[in-house]
Amino acid sequence: xxxxxxxxxxxxxxxxxxxxxxxxxxDLCVLKMDHHCPWVxxxxxxxxxxxxxxxxxxxxxxxxxxxxxxxQYFIKFWTNELLDTRAKFHVLxxxxxxxxxxxxxxxxxxxxxxxxxxxxxxxxxxRAPMFRNGPDKNGFSxxxxxxxxxxxxxxxxxxxxxxxxxxxxxxxxPTRLVNMDPEQLTVSSQNEPAKSCGPSQPFPTRPxxxxxxxxxxxxxxxxxxxSEEENVKSDVKKHIIVTLES
Length: 246
Description:
Elements: E1 8-9, E2 14-15, E3 21-23, E4 28-30, E5 35-37, E6 42-44, H1 49-78, H2 87-118, H3 122-126, E7 130-131, E8 134-135, H4 144-152, H5 182-190, E9 195-196, E10 202-203, H6 210-245
Antiparallel strand pairs: 1-2, 3-4, 5-6, 7-8, 9-10
């Protein structure tokens, strides 16, 4: 990614955009591929990543609802207050299944929420994307709020609805400043505000070199030297006039 080499897929015979990977299970290239999910029998990528997160969120709420509604019957079963029928085994099985799925889905959903906040995929979390300055896991991170909007869109009212609102086209992604020299960043932040040379080309103020500083120092000394020479010349003229009069 963002290096001089062009990424090419030998299986699909196509040029792979940035963050695109070939899925061996689906046998095709997936834009911004995250992983292949066996639960939905499909690849999770740019086109359905929001739907995958909503699927986890809806499943999490459903498991919580089932566990909460069966909890009272589970307590009665534990205290031997439930009638001795076959339903008590169904209640016990349903509660444990809902609780176990809730814990597993909560861990997976929390992990993907962390990935969204960092603007990473599961593949990029284990293998950092390559840029001109080398691998960088935070190369696509634009801040937590912008990372959320890149997946869920600008309209917050559609975030929890199964509607495609992700930003971008899946081929081009904005990146943070990874190509600028870090020493230049520190120097530009310490300098004064940039001087504009035209409306669209700002240039930072450049410090004076040592030779320029010396020249300015010599220029400041020149008026003092000239004034001393004038005083010496006036004293000499006065001395000559005094000698002639005498």
